[in-house]
Amino acid sequence: MIKYIIIVVVVLLALLMAGLVVRRKHNAEIGRLDKEKLQIQHYPIFEELAKVKALNMNGQTEELFENWRNRWLDVVDKQIPKIDELLFDAEEFVDRFKFNKATHTERDIEQELAKCEQVRVQIITELDELIGSEEKNRIEIEQLKEYYRSARKTILAHQHSFGPALEALEKKLEQFIPKFEEFDELTKDGNYLQAREIVLQLNSEAQEIFSLLNDVPTLLTEIQTKIPTAIHELRNGQREMEEQKYYLRHLELTEYLNGLENELEMLKAAIAELNLPAVSPRIETINDEIDHFYNLLEKEVMARKYVERNCSGMYSVINDVMRLTKDINDEVAYVQHSYRLQDREAEIPKVGLKHLEVLQRRYELLSTRVHEEKSAYSSLQEELKEITDEIEQIAEEQEKFSNKLKNLRIDENKARAELETLKRLLQDTERLLGRANIPGIPEEMDARLEEAAEQIFVVVQSLQEVPLNIIQVNQHLLNAKQSIEETHEKAQEMIENVLIIERLIQFGNRYRATNRQVHENLLEAEDAFKKFRYIKALEDAAKAVEIIDPNAIKRIEELVQEQLLTK
């Protein structure tokens, strides 16, 4: 029984302690909320609002002041007492250990405090905006008035620079005066925020005027002076060149210049209406077009110099290339008695001659057009360059073919010399095998030697053909070279393998009596060696030696290579 009483007492004490801890937390939270309430309640909002009295307490300013004051009085007289009641309720709930209700009440207090803080922030923000607007308005309106006076002086002092746009610019400036008056009236009536809108609008218009005062004179200079001067220069240049027998109708320059003069009047009218966004990019385009025509006229001058310098000499160039091509064609007929040429190669001079005849007719027509002086020199230059390029291409092709014909005899002699070299290499291979101390030559090596000899025979036969097909000769020669060189390498490799086998067997003989596996491998190696199966013998001998000393194989290979080098 006592045990249960003790348990109950312990549980009650635990619950009491937990309740006290929770109550302490709630009391701390209520204290924090009360502190926030006091900060809001005692915030010197009316001292801040007193700054407004330095302004004109009329109109909008007066309305804003009354609105702020009433909103804050509502906070102090209604919302703060409500919060006090909620704080009192929360304290009672905590004292009675009604923690859930206390929590809900604390949340309500938090929301009410947030509303009060929001009102305070809005009032201060709007107040700062009003006071700041008044200060900015006072500074910026003076700057705008000064700019207006400066712009007015500029227009009066440089009326001629603005030409037809003068009247529109003056009207834009005149619009500033009623705006200044409206600003003063709004400021006097305490409507500082509305006055701020006037200042911002004037700032935008001032920037536009500033841009116009800078751009209008520049664009008018282009339209009234620079572009007309360029038009005059282009007309004079065209007239002088036509007097010098230049053909310029394809440029359609006269039509362009007439249209441009009409367009300049339209652009001037657009400037009078201050429609600069439509004028400025077009001026840039016109300047590019004028530069293009200058370049075209200069191109005609350069083209005439090129034609006069190269046209007359082209006749002799064509004749020289035709004579060269005919000589090569005759040489082909002579060479074909001794050497066989592919049909495509043999036709190179004939194709070249036909092409040259076409170019000759094109040149004659070009020469006629030059003398008639009814064609643009730029087109004549282009045609002359095409003819020149094609003639140079034909001459280069014929020169290459001529050199190839001359090299046929050289290629034949080179092939015969290489044939003799291969014969000697084959003979050296046979002597190498004959001098080598080997049991015999395997069938594979005999077959290689026979194949190499047959390849030599094929080359000899192809060199005896008339006419000689040098391409076929070189192909047979390549086959023979590959066969003989491969045979020579295989012979050297076989002789080296035989020496290695002998050394390996000699090394292994010392261990045959004590190692049965070595003895059996060496027996197989010796049997293969006697049957000329040298690769098999090398593998068996290497297996035997590897059992004894794996490093011995490498030492024996190095000794054999040194022995072969000293021979």
TrEMBL record:
GO biological-process terms attached to the record: division septum assembly; septin ring assembly
Recorded GO CC terms: plasma membrane; septin ring
Extracellular topological domain: 1-3
Cytoplasmic compartment spans: 23-567
Keyword Transmembrane: yes
Chain coiled-coil ranges: 250-277, 370-432
Membrane topology: Single-pass membrane protein
Signal peptide coordinates: none
Pfam families for the chain: EzrA (PF06160)
Superkingdom, taxonomy of origin: Bacteria
Classification via InterPro entries: EzrA (IPR010379)
Keywords recorded for this protein, A-Z: Cell cycle, Cell division, Cell membrane, Coiled coil, Membrane, Septation, Transmembrane, Transmembrane helix
Keyword Lyase (UniProt): no
Subcellular location: Cell membrane
Role according to the record: Negative regulator of FtsZ ring formation; modulates the frequency and position of FtsZ ring formation. Inhibits FtsZ ring formation at polar sites. Interacts either with FtsZ or with one of its binding partners to promote depolymerization.
Family to which this protein belongs: Belongs to the EzrA family.
UniProt-listed HAMAP family: EzrA
Stated name of the protein: Septation ring formation regulator EzrA
